[in-house]
Amino acid sequence: MSTALPYAAHQTITSRNCIFLPQNCAKTSARSEVIISIPKKLRKDSSHLPELSIKNGICSTDEVVREIVHRQSKNINPNAYNARRRPSFHPMFLDEAYERCKDICAEYAKTFYLGTLLMTEDRQKAIWAIYVWCRRTDELVDGPNAAHLSSAVLDRWEERLEDIFDGRPYDMLDAALTDTVHSFPLDIKPFKDMIEGMRMDTMKNRYANFHELYLYCYYVAGTVGLMSVPVMGIAAESSLSALSIYNAALYLGIGNQLTNILRDVGEDASRGRVYLPQDELGKFGLRDEDIFSRKVSDEWRGFMKEQITRARFYFDQAEAGASQLDKPSRWPVWSSLMLYRMILDSIESNDYDNLTKRAYVGRTKKLMTLPLAFTRAQSDPSLVVFQ
Question: What is the reported pTM?
Fold first, then answer.
């Protein structure tokens, strides 16, 4: 399942002894709070997996987000870098590495890339490097060689990630990320958690309830927001705590991934995968067989209305945080938020037929949205109240 943001890579990825060729192309009681146990252990060592709780009717990974906020804030202190061995790259090599990341982003994430052009040069390059790494990670599961994927491949990819953070990049694109993690207060945990999401994809193709699905969305898409906040920066005049802003970034990733899931139901079904809460399907009298038959019934429409409402709820939660980022960084975030909402509108316009049709936003609509996103990005952070 693709991650929530449109990352892409088009060059050969070499991982130890394996070579990959990526495609050319993440209401209950207001006082309720319960802990949901993780349904399936993904690895022998699962002590790092986050607990999922329900607060005010919202699935939450507050504890893991709080830990990441602490680590990435702590890393602002130069002494925190002492344990890292910063490599010395020739300036021309590093320039070419970032240029390749830029080209990949420009070709496969055109709208988002356009938004990054307002950012400062160092932030642009860092965001491009992060996006390329995320896409390469996703391609291990969704790329043309995914059928040959083994757990050992993901283990080697995680080792390679540790090498990147230790200043030992394997190739030019790795080098761009190595330079990024030594230039911004980035912690390795969100990156490792994304790899964990890829492991989930190799072991699980059904989700009993939304609690399980939310955890998956956190791993493969929410982590992107947690990686991005330190690079995009928080506005000095922000009226929210860092934890609130990180949670808003997480919610944007959750909303994007839920939208991806709803958009791609038919495509995923063709691969025998159903990324939908089984208990909620059952509430409408639906089963996997109804999805595989591609029949758009009244029951399906009722189910889809609830799913779209939920995705929009997470976008609503993300809005205030988008306005709290450093001003030059807001436009790409607002563009992503608004365009993904339009995918939900498109599903509705197709009479909820996402079984035989793929909802999309046309180029004209995208271009018309960008000025509005730019206007929203200019809002005063001190005047925004988090929902």
Answer: 0.81
